[in-house]
Design goal:
Helix content is 53%, strand content 16%. The mean pLDDT is 91.
């Protein structure tokens, strides 16, 4: 039963506590509708305070407006407060030279954090499932990701002052559809998911079926298992890196993080990479994907480049070699 599997995931990853205040991201699609109904079933037992959040990306004209109306009506039916907002994702993407996917993701998380702050919620629930996990791992492999990316989608992670949780992360998409059908629960269908304009859609609609048919019918299960195994390895390395960071970093100013070069270069490359990620995280609060070319440039900075050489990293962060130190800082501090 899907509800029992969700309870197991909540316990396994310690997602919820009694009386948690929770923002639930609801697009109107099958995953988020399933998540909303399951959390509503758990609301009384856990004493949960639920608040629905819906962001209209304004990408599908009238269809997007109908999604918003659907979510409002669901909130009214379940007697759960709701926050809805519309934003021009396409215009934001053009203005900031981002892909539509990246712009939508950034705006969506900003919106969810604002709703969480307004409602005094400490957690945000998202509807990612096991199929999303498999697709994400495959996408990141194709992009040349390292161990951090191959972890896939974490069951929970910090975002600002909140904790992102994904109670459906161990549920297959077919189980979600079966649950909705058996309960006669309506949901919205996003027509853009059928169009192969975006990378994820091409992976989902073309590549994954091709791999299942011609190479491995259990490819999704293999990718899901890979993500779990890599996640345990990464957790161990990350804890080791945090201990090394204390010994390798020196007194840092508010808008920069300083690592001692002589100690840094003696570390294994795996720990070096994680220390760089920690440095960026301390500056930014999060870490965007760091490409292989960035790692190579950092290696050159450490070994071959002269004093005062600079490497630009993603997210507006740069690193400079100066006076026996590697200093990470914001390129355009506010």
């Amino acid at each position: 039963m899907i509800l029992e599997k969700v309870k197991q995931a909540i316990r396994k990853f310690d997602m919820l506590k009694k009386n948690d205040r929770l923002v639930v991201a609801v697009s109107g699609g099958p995953d988020s509708i399933c998540l909303m109904h399951l959390l509503n079933k758990l609301k009384k037992k856990w004493g949960l305070h639920l608040h629905i959040a819906h962001l209209n990306h304004m990408l599908r004209d009238n269809e997007s407006d109908k999604d918003s109306l659907f979510v409002r009506q669901l909130a009214e039916k379940l007697n759960i407060p709701v926050s809805c907002e519309s934003i021009d994702v396409k215009g934001f993407a053009q203005e900031n030279k981002l892909s539509i996917e990246e712009a939508a993701r950034n705006l969506r998380y900003d919106f969810l954090l604002r709703v969480a702050k307004q409602t005094f919620a400490s957690k945000i629930a998202l509807g990612h499932n096991q199929d999303d996990q498999a697709e994400t791992v495959l996408m990141r492999f194709l992009r040349g990701s390292g161990i951090s990316g191959l972890r896939g989608i974490p069951a929970k992670r910090a975002l600002g002052d909140c904790l992102i949780i994904r109670p459906l992360i161990e549920i297959r998409r077919r189980e979600i559809m079966r649950f909705l059908s058996s309960k006669n629960i309506p949901c919205r269908s996003d027509s853009s998911n059928l169009k192969n304009l975006y990378f994820r859609n091409r992976v989902r609609n073309e590549l994954m079926p091709y791999l299942e048919k011609d190479f491995n019918p259990s490819i999704k299960e293999m990718l899901i298992n890979l993500a779990e195994n890599v996640s345990w390895d990464f957790d161990y390395l990350e804890k080791a890196a945090e201990e090394r960071f204390k010994k390798t970093s020196s007194a840092s100013k508010e808008k920069e993080v300083v690592l001692k070069r002589d100690k840094f270069i003696t570390l294994h490359k795996a720990l070096q990479k994680l220390l760089v990620r920690l440095a960026i995280k301390k500056l930014k609060g999060n870490v965007r994907r760091i490409d292989y070319r960035h790692w190579k440039e950092l290696e050159d900075l450490l070994t071959d480049r002269p004093q005062n050489s600079i490497v630009d990293l993603p997210g507006g962060v740069s690193a400079v070699k100066k006076n026996g130190k590697i200093i990470f800082y914001h390129r355009n501090p506010k």
